[in-house]
Design a protein that fits this description.
Elements (H helix, E strand, L loop, with lengths): L7 H11 L2 H14 L22 E8 L1 H13 L4 H17 L3 E8 L16 E8 L6 H16 L6 H8 L13 E6 L5 E4 L2 E4 L12 E8 L2 E9 L5 H20 L5 H36 L8
Parallel strand pairs: 4-7
Antiparallel strand pairs: 1-8, 2-3, 5-6, 7-8
Amino acid sequence: MPGLPVQYADFAVWQRRWLQGETLEAQVDYWSRKLQELPVLSLPIDRPRPKARNTEGARQTRILPGSLRARLNDLSSSENVTMFMLLLAAFKSLLHYYTRQTDIVVGTDVAGRNSEETERLIGFFVNQIVLRCDLSGDPSFRLLVARVREMALEAYAYQDLPFDKLVEEINPERDLSMTPLFQVKFVHQNVPLPTLQQSDLSLEIIGSEGTPAKFDLLLEVIEAGDRLTCVLDYSTQLFEAETISRMLQHYDSLLTLIVERPDARLHEIVGVLARSDLEYTATKEEALGQATVQSLRSARRKPLSLSQP
């Protein structure tokens, strides 16, 4: 195996030297302008937001069919966008449905390996960036994904400012109940998890049972084989499991809708999800009513038992 041309320590020194002066000023100036008057994402929550957040969380997973993934691939190709951009545009549409906000802010990860020399290095290069998108004007999904593409490419050009440094420079008003700059994160993983082979054993890395909630919500969409797996981590301080299950169902429905009708406008997407919720609520209430009637009938059939003194 050929030796590495540089070590991680070399990269760290280079980054510190490079990210100063006019280069640092340009990065800070871009993000300062981009993140002016940053809104808080007003998600409907099941429990009052505590004064100080903790990392108590849980995870739910939903596997999407391979046929849907194939159609999403076709749509991303026809719109000249990456799968990340397409899935992010759908997620922002989903967040609009829940919040009715048109200024949607989420965070994401960037690999941070922008040169050939760093591709084989062992070390932590990942950085977080803020993706702020305008959903105003009731755009079609096709137009929205074009906006997301433009926004993402612009943000990638200024991805080198470390997130901690960004927070330090922006200096947002601190609130112990939420994370700074963004409360919801989206990650697209198109690199399969490594599998370890040893003699007749086949091992693969799996997630741990304990799921700390780093954010209010963290949606990771993983491409593996011929399917997409949606993994949604959430704060149990804020959300019930049923709410998160519905959110994943909505994301599935939304992705199905946009491959069938990419010209659907945002209000039409909202309408489809709203009707789905009405049907879900009606079905749930009907089931609850039937269960209540059955309980009353069972109670009437039981003889009254009187204890003897």
